[in-house]
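User: I'm putting together a teaching handout on how multi-component assemblies are represented. Below are the sequence lines for each component of a complex, exactly as they appear in our records. Could you produce the 3D structure of the whole assembly as structure tokens, so the students can see both representations side by side? Please keep the chain order the same as the input.
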Amino acid sequence: MTLLFPLGLAALATWLLPLLIHLARRHPYTPLDFAALRWLRAQIRPRQRIRFDDWPLLLVRLLLLAALALLLARPALIGPAPLPKAWTVVAPGLDATALRGTAEEGNWHWLAPGFPAIDHAPPVSSASLPSLLRELDAQLPAGTALTVHVPDPLPGLDGARLKLSRDVQWHTQPMPVTSPQTAVALPRLRVHGEASATAQHWLNALQRAWGVQALPSPLAEDAVPERGEMGVWSRNDALPANWQAWLRDGGLVMRAGKPAASARILLRDAEGVPLLWQQRIGQGQLLTLPGDWNAASNAALRDPQLPRALLLALQPPTAPRLGDGRDQAPHRAALPAVTPPPREPTPWLLLAIVLLFALERWMASSARRRVAA
Amino acid sequence: MPLTLPPELRARLRMLRLRPRLASGASGIGQHASRSRGAGLEFAQYRAYEPGDELRQIDWKLYARSDRFFVRESERESPITLWVLLDATASAGQADRAAAQRTRLDHMRGVAACLVELALQQGDRFGLLAINGDGLQLVPAASGARQRDRVHLQLHALQARGSWPAAERLRPLWERVRPGDLLLAIGDGFDEAGIVLLEQLASARREVGLLQILTADERDFPFDSGHRFRDPETGEELLGDGAAIRADYLQRFAAARSALQLRLQASGIAHATGWLDRPLDQPLQALFGRGGGA
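Assistant: Of course. Below is the structure of the complete assembly, with chains in the same order as your input.
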């Protein structure tokens, strides 16, 4: 139990208000008829004694103010939330009722954002399962045992191996997956009409190095390449206006010549000499080869690694996202202790305040009723 | 509050007799011994025959034994007139803290009703003199049950207010209360003018008694915290801490009471004290009961 805003307790100074009102109200004594007054002697002033009548009402009022001050001070519970000893999580998509069987014990939850209880409908989530496991591991107190049911080809893998701070009972359920058929389209080069024979020759070799298809026919005079194709501008002058517009709209153009100052080096050869520059222009990118299109004079064009490196640069291979469930069982690692977030019992405090207020009103009005009766 | 007396109180009242010390020689037949002797029921004495006595008054059997004429005399019984004087000044509105509904005036009404009941039992004439800030309200003396109702009506209408009126406004009292009448004052005895009036009445051959009605608060002074005491008649106020001034007050109050008693004794005024938390007839028992004062 701690206070997130201890200065809020300064509101306790409002305690003075009902206390002072209560005490000040006492000072004018109600006159008391006393016919034998002449035998009283007034040499002793009445002592100002602190006297509380109606003290239950005063107490309730002070409690109400204290609760309000506590609300301002924002109390928070720091200790670990009282969680059950065992947690069981099931990845969405698995048959939870079959897994659960007749076992009623254990805290069954979906392995989905927010970790909803198993009684809810299976959530549809695309969140990565290892990431969710790491989050759950950080949330659960150290003593809680964790049982995990995941599908056998485990989807959602990322770069790091799954490491948790506790031993996990790891159950895999075989579940067929339909791996997405991503037919990777190889880039196709499209040369403008006036390309030189040497450039055509080298580009044809490049295209054949990527795949078995031949270089398509050169473009007409003022036509632009189609979307998905890679335009090649083999002249040394600037791009025409329609090519520039096409490039800015997301096109990909390769040319040879002197790179712009803002271009960055994309590829180097074995000696570290730059082979290819890349420059973003609008939505598209402009690749620049050093020198000219003559393979005899330009060493960069003769580099044997260039086609493969260029293909990898243009179409980086996707990381594996599916893995064998048993192999991906989490390792135990000493992770930095995660401080659980403080829990603020604000709703309960508000409820207490409302109840105290109702009690105070009831006591105040009933007291008045009693006096009037 | 109807002035009905509870049965056990009536039973105790039946044992009491209003016995004036000064015998009145007035007219009529009543329960009180008179100093005038003559024909009557109760034998008083024999005396020698004197010329002028009626012949039928001579006791002939005694003449036969003694050969002299003796006249048999009896004491005549005569009714007296009882005046109940009620001090209904503002101090009569005071009540005990323990029983805030029952004021001193209520108690005094009850005592007055007891006196009326006694007088009615004995066939005496009785009248009411009520004094408050408005002056004197009186019910002329008469006897009988209807007179009791008249007195009760007047007692009901009575309200405690004001302070003791000036002597001129009490002049009708002197015209009504004749010498030899029994006048019983019911009040707190705190008004100096009231005591002076009683002394004057006593020295003018009226038989006077004072039934002093005091509250239990005046006797015990049970206040233990700060209070603003107020004299209901003068409006004077005094702030005091009850526990601190208690001992001094009790001492001074007792001294004042004994001084008043001495003063009343010197004037021949019978005196008894009734308390608000005691039975109504307690001062009457003290005055008229067995072995009681007068």
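A couple of points students might notice: Chain A has nine helices and 17 strands. Chain A has three domains: 6-23+51-77+343-373, 86-177+323-332, 188-314.
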